[in-house]
Amino acid sequence: MKNPVTMKTLRTCLLLLPAMLLAACDGGSNANDAPLFADSAVIATRATNYSSGAVSLVAASAPFTARNSVAASATSDLFVRSGGDHYFVVKRFDTNQVLRYAASNPATPVYTYSTQDATDGTAQSNPSDLLIVSDTKAYLLRYGSGKLWIVNPSATTEAAFKIGEIDLSAYDTFDGVPEMTAGIVRNGRLYVAMQRLESFASVKTGYIAVIDIATNTEIDTQPATDGLKGIELPVRDPVSLAGIPGSNNILVLADGGYSGAPDYAQLYEGGIVRIDTAANSATLVFDDGDATTHPFDFFADIATVTSDRAYFISSTGFGAAQTLYRFNPNTSAAPVAVPGFQAVAMGSLAVDPNGKLWVTRTSSTQPGVSILGFTSGAETVDASLIDTVLTPINIDFITVPVL
Description:
By secondary structure, the chain is an all-beta fold. The chain has one helix and 29 strands.
C-alpha cells in the first residue's frame, strides 16, 4: 500500500543510559544498533537506481534521530508494516517474502516466510499489503493471486504462518487475479481494494471487498443484486485507503491507471472516493478530470489526520513533481495546496501517534522525510528534512518496549 499506515496505541518508556553517553558509544551512526526511542518511525527505503533496499528508523520526536541503512536488502520492491513493538518488511515481486524484525534488534529478522503457495498455481504472489488484526492474526494481500491469506504473524515456523485464505477471484473474470492492492481494518471488517486489470490495462472500475474478520467470510454489501458482493467504485485503479477519524468511513484514492499496450497512456479515470461503511455506498469527492482538463492530474497517496483534515499528493504523471494538498474529507470543498510542498519530489504520507504528518521526499540528491504540524489553520514544519540516505518508500510507526 502503498497504502495507508496503522498506528499502535500501546506506548511504553525506555529505560536508557543518558543520551550523551549513548552518543559517545555509537556516534549515532551505527546502522545496526537498536532504536533508542519509545516511539519510532520505520521507513522502507530504496537505492536511487532501484538496485537494493533497506530500512531507516527515526525517533518520532525531536531531534528525530535516525538510524539509516538497517537490514539491507537485495530488492527495492518492498514496504514496511508495524506490529507494535516489532515491524515487518514485505518483499514483493520476484522475492515474495514477509520478514519480521524486533525493534530491539532491527538488523536480524526473527523469521523470513514465503508468500508463495505451490498448490494454487500462483507464479508471483507479489504481496501488496499486510493488515495486522492481533498478535496471532493478520491478512496478507497478494497482488498476483486471487486468494488473500490469513496468517499468524507470531508463527514460530513457516508451516504455521498461513492459517487460512479467502478467494476473491470472482472479481476478475479475465484471469482470476483481481489485483488486490490495499486494505484497511475498520469496525470489525477488512476492506480490500482491487484494481481488476487486464494485461496491465485499467479497463474496469475498481471494487472494495468487505470481509467479516470474526468469521473470515465476505459480506454481501449488495444483497438486492445478483452480482459481485463488494462495493463498486466510480473510479479505476485504486491504490490507497485511509480511515476518517471519528467515523467508520473510508477514503479511497485511485490514480486512474493506464491504457494497454503499446501506448500505456495515462487514463483520467481516478479520483478520491468516500465510502459510507454503514450504507456500503461510494461517493466521488474529487475527480481527476479528463485528458484536456485535469486540475489534480495523477493522484498518488492519501492520509487523514483528523475528522476534518486530510491530505493527498498528486502529480503531473509518473516520475513528475508532486504537490501536497489539504482537504476536508467530509465535503467537496476545494483542496488547498500546502505552501512549500508544491512541484517537489514526494512519494507517500503517514500520520504518527502525535498527529503529525510525515511526508517522504524522493529527490535523488536529497532523499528524506519532512514532518508537518498544524496550528491556527496552517501547516507548521517540525522537521524540514530528515536524511534517510536512501529514497524513502513508505512509513509506519512502532513502539519500543521497556528494556
